[in-house]
Amino acid sequence: MRALQNILNQHGRAAFLIGNGPNLAANIMPSWEELLGSAADDPIRPELLEGLSNTEIYDLVQMKSQEPQNVRKKVCDLLELNGIHDLGVHENLMKFARDQRCPVLTTNFDKALESSVGAELIHLDSRGFTRFYPWKSYYGFERLTLPTNGFGIWKIHGDINYTDSIRLGLTDYMGSAERARRLIHNGDEALFRGKRQKMWKGHQTWLHIWFNMPIIIFGLKCGKDEVFIRWLLIERKRYLNLYGDPMKVYYISKGTPEPEVSNLMRNLDAEIITTDHYSELYGNGRY
Known about the structure:
Helix 3 packs across helix 5 and helix 8 (170-185) runs parallel beside helix 10. By secondary structure, the protein is of the alpha/beta class. The protein has a six-stranded parallel beta sheet with strand order 5-2-1-6-7-8, sandwiched between helices. The chain is built from eleven helices and eight strands. The chain has helices spanning 2-11, 21-26, 32-39, 54-64, 71-78, 88-99, 112-117, 170-185, 207-212, 227-242, 259-267; strands spanning 15-18, 104-106, 120-123, 137-140, 153-155, 215-218, 249-254, 271-275. The chain starts with a helix and ends in a 12-residue tail after the last strand.
């Protein structure tokens, strides 16, 4: 795991933001495109999908479904683990993160990361818990005082244990952005006031990790589908600019990223690290 270790050598600790890459490397989960195709009652004709993001496609799939309320449940069913899934890739990553006391943020809904090491669900603060936004809940081995204090697996886009929490469509992402915006900006406990940093309104959510630790992004394309993540990157830069602090975001990419990704990262002063393969992170796989 040299690519990760080299960055940690600079900072001591950092948070990992991990997407579907490990799942694809281990060949245990469908791609977004495969998932949406399986969840649809009738596949949308390919010529009508050109130029659309996957989040937009999900909203269309749901609207065209005879039972739109069941599409989210169907997606969760398609992401269930079974006994033949090899979680070695996930286990190596999570053991490394735990050894380094690095928090893990993930856009994945499935249970692969936490199941690979037997991490248990922990609620940092059960007051005000909502199954729609379980942002104070994580998978780990110890109860943390703050999300930044140690290893935990935090689900940014929802958890299949709470079907209502899954963020799949553009409408869902807009809801997440609005919830985060209220935590970051509103009232006397807003993050941007810069006071009582450990007591702002979102200090017991994964957002505290996002704004207070270096971030290493890998296994995540960060393209046009990731509207919420891209907005969060902009908000992080806006916040750090208030104090003249560096961005400290590292994006690891297999080969040169697409312009829609590289241009965003460069404009936000995030460092792009390219590799010819992901064996330094995952071992051998199809991704």
